[in-house]
Write a structure and sequence with these properties.
The chain is an alpha/beta fold and 362 residues long. It contains 15 helices and 13 strands. β1 and β2 form a beta hairpin. α11 crosses α14.
């Protein structure tokens, strides 16, 4: 197993996405960046650090750099400016300068927070992504969107800051709980629904092999999903147009995530948001009820809940108005013209959202 996808910016190579079965080629991949004789700081969390920080540090020490590690308490509730300040202080105390580099070792929380720290420390230093969750491998580690939550408003503070390298070790997925592993499928199924119906059909037909973590199925799935995201971010690196399609399910999904006080995983909330968006598509006539039911069946195959309770539909709609995806006071809602073909709709009303959520929030 060994795959490499190159991400370009304005036609020029920007960074590689390397897909491997272990960490043994991390030093080789990092050496291509020409960073040596510098300081590297592995930023990780209390779940991932004990599992993989030593192995990653050992590999990076082969590159001729001095390796440090910083670990913060795991959890979305620590993805905030207070944690960023703590990382700043660690870097300052250890005399990191603009030519040094951060290493994000962990899931989406670690990657987003480390990327934002790299974007803002000394007005920007280099960083690489070593994502360890399925969700981070196929989504958040690619594209340079970094950020932290602000007073429970998800990713409200952020910056675009591209990594120098994304290195994925697929074998780490075996250490994830079933629920955390499954939550990554939300973004994966989304990729098929917005861009590639044939890939969506493949995900439907190969669900058992994928859930059983068969290496060939996992490699193909991760490669195709990363390639779809690569294509979108190359076409729209600063989210001025097409890249917004990646937010299918996110507008209401983020609001549900906040109202549930982050007790559900991000992927689970995105799926709930996609179900609501599909309900709107059915109402508009772009997707048939049969097609929507089929997609719902695929979500169930991958272990996703199809509804939640204990929160208010009106509160979810109100929170969605504080989302960073708002444009001149209107929600940029991502919908489907058909399965595999997404578009932006700025005319979805509160009443439509309310009807769409009635089947999701019980």
């Amino acid at each position: 197993m060994s795959q490499c996808i190159n991400v370009k910016y304005d036609g020029s190579p920007l960074y590689d996405i390397v897909i491997e079965s272990d960490f043994s080629r991390l030093a080789e991949s990092f050496n291509k960046l020409g960073i040596t004789g510098r300081k590297l700081c592995i930023v990780t969390d209390s779940n991932v650090g004990p599992l993989y920080a030593d192995a990653v540090s050992e590999e990076l020490q082969k590159t001729g750099n001095k390796v440090f590690s910083y670990t913060f308490e795991a959890g979305e509730n620590n993805k905030n400016l207070n944690t960023v300040q703590d990382v700043y202080e660690f870097l300052i105390q250890n005399h990191f300068d603009r030519n040094d580099c951060l290493v994000a070792l962990g899931g989406g929380v670690v990657g987003d927070l480390t990327g934002f720290t790299a974007a803002t420390y000394l007005r920007g230093i280099k960083f690489i992504q070593v994502p360890t969750s399925l969700l981070a491998q196929v989504d958040s580690s690619i594209g340079g969107k970094t950020g932290v939550d602000f007073r429970a408003y998800k990713n409200m503070v952020g910056a675009f800051h591209q990594p120098e390298l994304v290195y994925m070790n697929i074998s780490v997925l075996k250490s994830l709980s079933t629920r955390l592993f499954n939550s990554g499928f939300g973004e994966i199924i989304k990729h098929g629904l917005i861009k590639d119906r044939a890939y969506y059909e493949w995900l439907k037909d190969n669900a058992e092999d994928i859930k059983a973590m068969k290496p060939e199925a996992l490699e193909h799935m991760i490669y195709v999903s990363c390639n779809i995201k690569r294509e979108v971010v190359e076409n729209d690196p600063k989210e001025k147009g097409e890249r917004a399609l990646l937010n299918f399910g996110h507008t209401l999904g983020h609001a549900i995530e906040k109202e549930m006080n982050f007790t559900l995983y991000h992927g689970e909330c995105v799926v709930l948001g996609m179900i609501a968006a599909l309900n709107i598509c059915v109402e508009l006539g772009t997707v048939t009820e049969t097609e929507a039911d089929e997609v719902l069946g695929v979500f169930k195959m991958y272990g996703f809940p199809d509804s939640v309770s204990g929160i208010s539909i009106d509160d979810v709609i109100a929170v969605s108005k504080n989302d960073k995806k708002m444009d001149a006071g209107k929600v940029k809602f991502i919908l489907l013209r058909s399965l595999g073909d997404a578009y932006i709709d700025r005319n979805i009303t509160d009443e439509q959202m309310h009807r769409a959520l009635e089947k999701v929030i019980r």
